Amino acid sequence: MKELPKTAKAVVIGGGIVGCSTAYHLAKLGLTETVLLERKKLTSGTTFHAAGLVGQLRTSANITQMLGYSVDLYKRLEAETGLATGWKMNGGLRLACNEERWTEVKRQATTAQSFGLQMHLLTPKEAFDLWPLMDTDDLVGAAYLPTDGQANPSDITQALAKGARMAGASIFEDTEVLDLEIDKGRIRAVVTNQGRIECERVVVCAGQWTRSFAARFGVNVPLVSVEHQYLITESFGVPSNLPTLRDPDRLTYYKEEVGGLVMGGYEPNPIPWAIDGIPKEFHYTLLDSNFNHFEQIMEQALMRVPALQTAGIKQLLNGPESFTPDGNFILGEAPELRNFFVGAGFNAFGIASAGGAGMALAEWVAKGEPPYDLWPVDIRRFGRPHFDTDWVRTRTLEAYGKHYTMAWPFEEHSSGRPCRKSPLYDRLKAQGACFGEKLGWERPNWFADLFAGEEPKDIYSYGRQNWFAAVDREHRAVREAAVIFDQTSFAKFVLKGRDAEAALSWIAANDVAKPVGALTYTQMLNDKGGIECDVTVARVAENEFYITTGTGFATHDFDWIARNIPAEMHAELVDITSAYSVLSLMGPNSRRVLESVTSDDVSNAVFPFLRVKTIGIAGCPVRALRVTYVGELGYELHVPVEYAATVYDALMAAGRHHGLVNAGYRAIESCRLEKGYRAWGSDIGPDHTPVEAGLAWAVKMKKNIAFRGREAIERQLASGVKKLFACFVPDDPGTVLLGRETIYRDGQRVGWLSSGGYGYTIGKPIGYGYVRNADGVTEDFVLGGRYELDVAQRRVPCQVSLTPLYDPQMARIKT
Questions:
Q1: CB-CB contact of 598 with 585 (8 Å)
Q2: pLDDT tens by residue, 620-633
Q3: What is the rounded distance in angstroms from the CA atom of residue 245 to the CA atom of residue 255?
Q4: DSSP conformation letters of 543-558
Q5: Distance from chain centroid for Cα 806
Q6: pLDDT of 234-278, one tens digit each?
Q7: Where is each Aminomethyltransferase C-terminal domain found (predicted)?
Q8: How many angstroms separate the CA atoms of 139 and 125, rounded?
Q9: CATH 3.90.1510.10 corresponds to the domain 10-85+151-222+326-381
Q10: How far apart are CA 203 and CA 334, in angstroms?
Q11: Where in the chain are all domains bearing CATH 2.40.30.110?
């Protein structure tokens, strides 16, 4: 047996397909001193019993691109290594059995088109011609992706392992990792049953073992094990070129295997596994077949594929796999521990993801950043609720059960709720709040009129949903009177210390070196100029800044700011999210309401836009921020949680004469769309710079102050950009925009919508997206084209704008 090396550049823990792909790509990047450690044998955890379907389309362009990379890799891997992979590009079919599903499929086809994939819509007869084993009596239509396929998971893993060795990596089986040596927050070595390896970077790709292993070192990886079954038939003449088939209305999937079929599915009542921990010697092990539980899937399959009634059954395979609370896998560097990377939780599509995930993870390890924005799978998308395994399991089982159900727009999870509640939760619920949830927080999305008999419950569809009229009421109150939004869930940080200003000046793209009382809207950039954070910064003392960011970005933004404080500077970042409630008082009457509950001067002359001031309301010291995300005069009132209910009651009582009402997040969204405010995670992110996003005005280029990303912005300002953010308004007011609709300029595909919704003031749908052109994009280029949007495979003419649709002079927010 080869001797374990004493040192390594990186150690990959786990010899499944993701670990082997990561080692392969690390070695290809030149980290030839990469070591992969597998406690038993390669593939012996989960990979060996994976079904092996390879689909590409996801709701994110970058994750779709990543899965497309997997396909490209699998196509060439056999020629590179000489080992068979079982890869077949036989295409993939997805069926629709009702009109709502057909609408979903048509929107998926538009998404595929937006992301550069060919997806063909088929009639039932055309689908039958491709898959003649199925009964098509209930089919409305189908979609076909010719570049999808299938593979043999174990063979691909062995080929990746050989490729990794050929590139210089070392792989050791039967080598169990016992511990990590960590000194002052830095990984120093990996300790195994075969010896010790000095290293500074560890990549944990240990599948369902990852959560418990990572937890030993303070790292949270939210995944749990769930039983997953599929059936393998005897050969009965199934053609080898049969496409893979997904039949979501019947919860089932199929692929050809040795003249027979593999058939599995996602039942609504999944069975969790290893609640008390994974047995120590569990490897190359399957669970007992559960025929009773599988019966519900089998019944659906028999109606679709009648030949299964007489086909011989070779095996009902039951293998546990790791699943996550949101159905997406987990990649990236752990925020809790430097140089501890994770690639796990692949939700039964690890084979499709592994090629691209290994590439992305390897680049993250080798270069310190991912190749592109990976927010949908970033480990930093999780937060406080995800530390509790019981909560993670509850939410994960719901996500598993929804794997093939309709992916409705605006759909909310129902499990594990309520978890985190604002002090106003009960008051708002009693007044008709319909709550959504983000990072465990209950947040009012909209308010039902209880006196009119409205029920605070979402009814999902692909058309205008049942809350459309309620949000119209709230939106008009924002524009015409005043509202209160409960935004307690905002993430809130304090940066303090003698070097706080210098540290924040380096991290923030805008100028934060302003007097106490100043409020600054700023991005925080990476070295490419991409937007990593989009925050509001209030200077509350000479050496103290109060930073506010979106609910879902709490872990991500805290991690980014903390990591970028220069080592030699004295500045400390503290998360104080739970200390403050936020009542956002917005609308043209908001100052009148505020004046009636405080003796402090809140006139425009004394308290202008982009200022922060402490005022008194009902015995409470309130940190008031003069800022808005809805395009109206307004104030964010940051209140110690113990005062929240008192301040809310005082505002509502005083505001009754000024038309003050409750409003929710859906009204915020419609207002921000009209005003052209960007949303991080959709409109802006690490792949978009302020110049491309139309936010260059918020970058301190006129000041001789160094900040991270400055050089990239200077280059773009000098040489131009290849994409530019723009607003699109369809001519047809009945169009429903949801995002990912394809943008056409003069008949050519130039991008897709990053956001979509409806503007109640202008009375039209609104979309935003980037106009792309490899030869460069200018404002004249954007405005000089004729535009259409593809909405569920229907071309809709639209108008383009580079200025806000509502109050472009910003007169309403500054008065």
A1: no
A2: 999 999 999 999 99
A3: 6
A4: TEEEEEE-GGGHHHHH
A5: 29
A6: 999 999 999 999 999 999 999 999 999 999 999 999 999 999 999
A7: 725-807
A8: 9
A9: no
A10: 10
A11: 720-815
| Block residue for tokens 């009177």 | 481
Q: Which CATH superfamily is domain 92-149+225-317 in?
A: D-Amino Acid Oxidase, subunit A, domain 2 (3.30.9.10)
Half-sphere exposure of 313 (CA within 13 A, CB side): 12
Which residue's structure tokens are 């998971």? Answer: 153
Amino acid identity, position 65: Q
Q: How far is CA 179 from CA 13, 193, 383, 397, 456, in A?
A: 11, 10, 25, 31, 51
Q: Decide if 462 contacts 107 (C-beta within 8 A).
A: yes
Cβ atoms of 568 and 510 within 8 Å: the answer is: no
Owner of token pair 């009457």: 589
**CATH numeric code, 720-815:** 2.40.30.110
Q: Assess whether the previous peptide bond of 418 is cis (omega < 30° from 0).
A: yes
Residue 547 contacts residue 558 (beta carbons within 8 Å): no
CATH 3.50.50.60-classified regions of the chain:
10-85+151-222+326-381
Q: Is the pLDDT of residue 1 over 80?
A: no
Residues carrying CATH 3.30.9.10, the chain: 92-149+225-317
pLDDT tens column, 671-719:
999 999 999 999 999 999 999 999 999 999 999 999 999 999 999 999 9
Q: Tell me the two tokens of residue 500.
A: 């706080």
Decide: 489 and 480 in contact? Cβ < 8 Å: no
